[in-house]
Every structure is written in C-alpha cells, then in structure tokens.
Design a protein that fits this description.
With about 70 residues, the chain is an all-alpha fold. It has one helix at about 5-60. Helices cover about 90% and strands about 0% of the residues. This is Stress-induced protein KIN2-like.
Length: about 70
C-alpha cells in the first residue's frame, strides 16, 4: 500500500468511527429524551390524582358530595 492509499484508508476508518460515535450519541440523546418524557408523564399523573383527591375533599367538606 503506498502512502496515499494508506492515508485514504485511515481517512475512511476515521470517518467510520466518527459516524459510529455520532450514532451512539444520538441514541443516548434519544434515550434521555424518552426518559424525561416518561418522568414528566408520571409526574403529571401524580398531580392529577392529587388534584382529584383535593377536589373530593372540598366536596366532602362543603357537603357537595352527598
């Protein structure tokens, strides 16, 4: 292999490694985004449940639930 072929091969290797690293980073970012989405959904569901309990408590306290 002459020098230009060797440089071309190394450039191809570097490009492939960079693409793989980029793909890994995108996958990690996607996983973080999905985890955040799930956490927010869970927090929203908990808040909704607490609001429903609070509303029932107010109804009970004011006699509106009879």
């Amino acid at each position: 292999m002459d020098n230009s072929q060797n440089l071309s091969y190394q450039a191809g290797q570097t490009k492939g490694q960079a693409q793989e690293k980029g793909g890994q980073m995108m996958e990690k970012a996607s996983n973080v985004a999905q985890s955040a989405k799930e956490s927010l959904q869970e927090a929203g569901q908990q808040m909704q449940a607490k609001a429903q309990v609070a509303a029932e408590s107010v109804k009970n306290a004011t006699g509106m639930n009879k």
